[in-house]
Amino acid sequence: MALLLAGPMLIIAMGVGLLISVIQAVTQIQEQTLVFVPKLLLVAGCFVVALPWLLQQLVRYTTTLFRSIPTIAG
Question: What is the pLDDT, as a whole number, of residue 63?
Fold first, then answer.
């Protein structure tokens, strides 16, 4: 569940980091904020866009977990 929820944001962070790293290697500009700021903005944007889906998945998982407590307890 954790991988499912964090996956979209991790993929975007890796993609942006890779793209900017290639650009930095080509231009030989080694500034750390060039990677941090776009990655932060895009991951935050992805989080805001995906928030309803993330909450729906968490509620579904929690509901299933609570409903399975009697069967686990025996």
Answer: 97
